[in-house]
Structure formats: C-alpha cells, structure tokens
C-alpha cells in the first residue's frame, strides 16, 4: 500500500467515528501506516465537534452509536466539505441503511468486519470504480448465523425475545447459539 500515500492527496485528515474503542484504535493505527492523519471520535457529539472545528477530507463513520446515528455526522460533513470521501461502516448492514447513507452523501458503505485494506480501498476508489467481488464470500449458513448473533445482541442476549423477533422456536435458537459459528 505504499502507493496509497500518493493517492491520498494534499489533505490526509481522516475522521474515524466508532464507539468500539479497541476497533477504533486498531483502525486508527492501520490508517496512519497508510498515510492518513486520523482523528478518533467515539460519539456523534464528538464527531460533530470534529467536523465543525476542522472538516476532514476523509471519514469512516459507524452507523449505530450510543448517542445517536452516524448519519448525522455524514450530513454535517457533507455540508461542511462537499468533496469529502465518507465511508459508512456498520455491523448492522441492511440495504435500506446503505441506500440512506449513500443518498445523504456517503461515498461507500461497508459491513463489519472490514479491515483497513477494505476501508482504504473504499476511501480512495474512483467514482466509476466498481468494487471487486469478495475473494472468500460468507456462506449462507454463516450469513444466517451472523444475523442471529446481531439480533441476539440487540435483544441484550435475551433468548426468548430474540426467538420472538426471529419467529423461531426458543429451543431451536438455543441449539443454534450453543454451536460454533459456521465457516
């Protein structure tokens, strides 16, 4: 990724907005190695303050944060700096949220887990570049398992509530949760 530094341009400022601190620190270090100048923010309020004080040329914004929705920061950055390259990153990927993010100005939308190479490629992609297909796409079983895990976490690890939301028998859900994740 040595040539990435050449493509970044004259303003390497990058806003990283995520409430997952370990992930945020890892991504910040990785993006710094790739030539960016990252500024970390852990909440919508911190993100809006960073945009107001010094609108960055690049941003990676988590969709769901404890104090609100990351799309607020995307809108604020788009108003402050229309040419900014913004990637929305989320563990709760859905077509509706991807469309909403792109409509309000996000350059790209990535589902977690995404590594620094994915983020860099999305930030530096040309407008007419299509993303390459994934080398190792998730199996249907893995996608199903990931969805169940997300709903389970959204329900504060309550098996009965998760089963109700997934329209699944409670015992069936318990068996799925007891197994290892599929590949």
List the keywords.
alpha/beta, phosphoprotein, five-stranded parallel β-sheet, 48% helix, single chain, 183 residues, 9 helices, globular, Photosynthetic apparatus regulatory protein RegA, two-stranded antiparallel ribbon
Structure description:
There is one protein chain. The protein has a five-stranded parallel sheet with strand order 2-1-3-6-7, with helices on both faces. It is globular, with a radius of gyration of 18 Å. Helix 3 packs parallel to helix 4 and helix 7 packs across helix 8. It folds into two domains: 4-124, Response regulator (Rossmann fold, 3-Layer(aba) Sandwich), CATH 3.40.50.2300; 140-178, Orthogonal Bundle (Arc Repressor Mutant, subunit A), CATH 1.10.10. The chain has 183 residues and is of the alpha/beta class. The model is unreliable at 1-6 (pLDDT under 50). The chain is 48% helix and 16% strand. It contains nine helices and seven strands. The modification 4-aspartylphosphate is found at residue 62. GO terms for molecular function: phosphorelay response regulator activity; transcription cis-regulatory region binding. InterPro entries: ActR_PrrA_rreg, CheY-like_superfamily, Sig_transdc_resp-reg_receiver, WalR-like.
């Amino acid at each position: 990724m040595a040539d990435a530094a050449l493509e970044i341009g004259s303003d390497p400022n990058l806003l990283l907005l995520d409430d997952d601190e370990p992930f945020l620190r890892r991504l910040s270090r990785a993006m710094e190695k790739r030539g960016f100048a990252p500024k970390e923010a852990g909440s919508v309020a911190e993100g809006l303050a960073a945009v107001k004080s010094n609108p960055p040329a690049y941003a990676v914004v988590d969709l769901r944060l404890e104090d609100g929705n990351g799309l607020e920061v995307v809108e604020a950055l788009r108003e402050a700096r229309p040419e900014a390259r913004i990637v929305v990153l989320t563990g709760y990927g859905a077509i509706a949220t991807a469309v909403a993010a792109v409509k309000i100005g996000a350059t790209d939308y990535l589902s977690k887990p995404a590594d620094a190479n994915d983020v860099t490629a999305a930030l530096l992609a040309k407008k007419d570049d299509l993303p390459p297909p994934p080398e190792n796409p998730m199996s249907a079983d893995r996608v199903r398992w990931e969805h169940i895990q997300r709903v389970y976490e959204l329900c504060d690890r309550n098996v009965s509530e998760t089963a109700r939301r997934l329209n699944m028998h409670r015992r069936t859900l318990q068996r799925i949760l007891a197994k290892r994740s599929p590949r």
